[in-house]
Amino acid sequence: MGADYLPYVAIVLTIVLSIGLVGVILVVNALLGPKDLSGAKSESFECGNPPADTSRKRFSVKFYVVAIFFVVFDIEAVFLFPWAVMYRDLLKSPVYGSIALAEVLVFTGVLAVGLWYVWKKGALDWAFDGARSGGTDD
Amino acid sequence: MMDALTLKDALFWAFAFLTVGFGLMVTFHRSLVHAALGLMGTLLSVACIYGLLDADFVAVTQIIVYVGGVLILFLFGVFLTRRIDDIEVSNLSVNWMVAVPAGLVLLAVILYAVISSPLPMAPVDATGPTVEGIGNEFLSRYLLPFEVLSVILLAVLVGALMMARRELKPEERD
């Protein structure tokens, strides 16, 4: 075991501890908790309201669109990490610092245009009243 | 030295078996939701293998993008399927006649690529964090791919909006 494994030891410890904690809570709950599954207790819990419908329904495609947007900006964030790590070093030279800033501004600028576009098209409006979507085409 | 080597080998084999096992779960589990959970196991095991290979940035990216993002897409895809209400047999493994030959062809291509390309056997002295090196390359040699990537992501944004547009129309949403 070299010293280069040390960060991974911390990660593995975190994972083992969190899984162990959840396991302990579940086991203790199963051993000590009173079990009286009857009537209203076995219904699914919806913040105190009685369940309106089955939960196994097809979802609106809005969720999927938002998930795609999330993945896109997730990838953007991943690509910003290497730049961010380098940027402090590059700032020591004014030339390289401004070049690096310009490069990343182009990168995020293109995506900001995309965000502006989908925003303007109303894809982020959850209620979707159609007022901002234009609603003229197709 | 020998000790570390065998530990690394043992970890590699453990994660390799986990990857294949979860992959089998993805293929054969009768419920699509459980298959998606198996996919999470596969992706996490692959991330661990990346970590074993000292590719820390790739490992973290695998977790952030694939486990955190793409898997969510898969789950939403499951929620959008027509057969979601019968949860027992939602994984319809059909079309064996097409799937088996296609899989065999893919396997042959991968095996050919593995066998025909020489593996670099020299030890690589790239231990430690790789993020600085990647950032350096992005800002200098691979600047154009870096910027083109933002255009590709832009295309994904617009394309997703366009494809879902008919469903996003205001009428008759419950």
The greatest inter-chain interface is formed by:
A-B, 57 and 53 residues
Share of residues in helices of chain B: over 70%
In the CATH hierarchy, what is the architecture of the largest domain in chain B at level 2?
Up-down Bundle
Shape of chain B: globular
Q: Total helix count of chain A?
A: 3
Q: Give the rounded overall mean pLDDT of chain A.
A: 79
Terminal residue distance of chain B: 64 Å
How does the major sheet of chain B shape up? none
Quote the distance from N terminus to C terminus of chain A. Answer: 63 Å
- What structural category arises from helix and sheet content of chain B? mainly alpha
Count every beta strand of chain A, where a strand is a DSSP E run of 2 or more residues: 0
Low-confidence stretches of chain A: 129-138
Summing up helix and strand content along with how strands pair, one would put the structural category of chain A as mainly alpha
Kindly estimate the percentage of residues of chain B that lie in beta strands according to DSSP.
under 5%
CATH secondary-structure class of the largest domain in chain B: Mainly Alpha
Helix content of chain A: 55-70%
Radius of gyration of chain A: 25 Å
List the helices and strands of chain A in order.
Answer: HHH
Strand content of chain A: under 5%
Largest sheet of chain A: none
Oligomer: heterodimer
What does this protein structure show overall?
The complex is a heterodimer of chains A (138) and B (174). Chain A has 3 helices and no strands. Chain A is an all-alpha fold and 138 residues long. Chain A has a domain at 61-127. Chain B is an all-alpha fold and 174 residues long. Chain B folds into 2 domains: 1-84, Four Helix Bundle (Hemerythrin (Met), subunit A), CATH 1.20.120; 131-168. Chain B has helices spanning 2-28, 32-52, 56-79, 96-116, 131-139, 143-163. In chain B, helix 1 (2-28) packs antiparallel against helix 2 (32-52) and helix 2 (32-52) runs antiparallel to helix 3 (56-79). Chain B is globular, with a radius of gyration of 21 Å.
